[in-house]
Write a structure and sequence with these properties.
Radius of gyration of chain A: 14 Å
Strand content of chain B: over 45%
Order of helices and strands of chain A: EEEEEEEEEEE
Shape of chain A: globular
Number of helices of chain A: 0
Largest sheet of chain B: 6 strands, mixed
Helix content of chain A: under 10%
Distance between the termini of chain A: 37 Å
Helix content of chain B: under 10%
Structural class of chain A: mainly beta
Largest sheet of chain A: 7 strands, mixed
Radius of gyration of chain B: 13 Å
Number of helices of chain B: 0
Oligomer: heterodimer
Order of helices and strands of chain B: EEEEEEEEEEE
Amino acid sequence: EAGVAQSPRYKIIEKRQSVAFWCNPISGHATLYWYQQILGQGPKLLIQFQNNGVVDDSQLPKDRFSAERLKGVDSTLKIQPAKLEDSAVYLCASSLDLRRTRANVLTFGAGSRLTVL
Amino acid sequence: RKEVEQDPGPFNVPEGATVAFNCTYSNSASQSFFWYRQDCRKEPKLLMSVYSSGNEDGRFTAQLNRASQYISLLIRDSKLSDSATYLCAVNFAGNQFYFGTGTSLTVIP
């Protein structure tokens, strides 16, 4: 089974520039997540999609971050304009929609490492 | 208050030692629980799920205490290859996964 695909793996930009990250989840996974992981911290949930609808975006800084999953499969996360504190790894993850079982597991992509100068 | 809290460590232990990590969660409605392992500059990977009755996978034992709202991970006979960051994760209703800050483990020869 193919894993969660993300691109680009690395991106260096200057503050106030924009950047976009792409994610393709595991085939058949209805739920897609974007996490931000700052060095030395655990992953922080930014946004969660169920198919093409947003389930939770309460921790997404909406003045600069946006995300979409238009066809319920792949997703993009955009930052505009970037700030120094946005330097982090952006992890995409997916899971099956098995709300009634405890077998649901989160699988991560390799991440996109962003450096803002 | 954070949803999930862990002692960040670092834990430095000799090979062969037994080490235990704890993780507390704030939401009593949490449904499922996991330990993930994260190697340096890599993504988190599932180590094991945690069930109410406790579960074991080789040298690793995970336990859940719902009354006190914590989960634990025990590693016996530590190997050099166990050096990593261990993240606990909690799944709330709505399929929402929250992570702790991670506990850093270094196994020393």
